[in-house]
Write a structure and sequence with these properties.
By secondary structure, this protein is α/β, with parallel strands linked by helices. The chain has one domain: Rossmann fold (3-Layer(aba) Sandwich), CATH 3.40.50. 43% of the residues lie in helices and 15% in strands. Helix 2 links the parallel strand 1 and strand 2.
Length: 256
Amino acid sequence: MSILEQFQLKGKVALVTGCSRPNGLGYGMAEALAEAGADIAGVDVGSFEEVQTLLAGAGRRFLGLQEDLTRSGAIAAVVERTLKEFGRIDILVNNAGMIRRRPAIDFTEEDWDAILALNLKTVFFLSQAVAKVFLNQGTGGKIIQVASMLSYQGGITVPAYTASKSGVAGITRALANEWARHRINVNAIAPGYMATDNTAALRADAGRAASILARIPAERWGENSDLKGTVVFLASAASDYVHGHILAVDGGWLAR
């Protein structure tokens, strides 16, 4: 198989969470996987009407599952419906997440629990559910978590988000240790400062935005298209010997 053929995903099925917003990271990754040949099952609390139209341009099948993954029974339902529609799962992208900003001294238990439930608990149990599918299929598979710069750093006014993304990094390594022998690759992408809804408050703060931009060697905020090559690599045969790695896509932020 040539190197370019190794990046092809024709005949694969990808389950991507948090991908209902066209400017979001999840949509960018879903679009990339579809362009590489995969059919897509998308999961989000929002409507998929606009995204379904956009993804149709890639010529792949798309299933939109409007679901709150923190709801009891939601993970099992999502996996069951994906298998019913496509007959298999080959790739999982655990992208769904939330952020709430408040000084640590004032952070509430309600906010803490909501963030950890979606950003960390769901990541583990959806990974577990899909890994069971991989084992039943006997095919191996690819699990791609979405970490963060705050998997490496403490941040300011985002203690629960930092805890969750540090946990995502740890879970990525732990699952890779157990599942690599089954040809299940578990890796993570750590996006830098991206121009998405999650950073809208930062970009609206002129002083903070300027200080962030000044530290990025690439001298720009990232776009969801910047994750396309990375997610296809980690979802494809080209990354078959990559396990437990956290790949930063950050414009050079961590190198500064």
